[in-house]
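Proteins fold reproducibly. Consider a sample protein:
=====
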Amino acid sequence: QVTVVESGGGLVEPGGSLRLSCEVSGDASGVYVIRWHRQAPGKEREFVAFIGTGGTSEYADAAKGRFTISRGARNLWYLQMNKVKWGDTGVYYCEYESRTIPTYGKEFWGRGTQVTVSS
């Protein structure tokens, strides 16, 4: 079983920075994909960024040039948010998707961390 816990959300001014953390515990070894998603009030959840085991990363257009997804210490990943905008407000979720048999394709989600952009 894998547990995902996000942290680091809070209040940030437009143009400011925030770093979100995603800690994965349990049987999280092997090949994986980590994704960050977000859900703004009244909107559907949307993809923000992804990183694979080898370090390959991809970003949604809204995040390109401003956000960086990275791996920290063992089983810890980050989403560095710079130059935040009003539209970045929302609950940010971390998703761990196993790419290792026998749990290949299984997704594990955290409960989210709130980011509020406000002056």
User: Anything to note?
Assistant: Residues 66 and 82 are 5 Å apart (CA to CA). The radius of gyration is 14 Å.
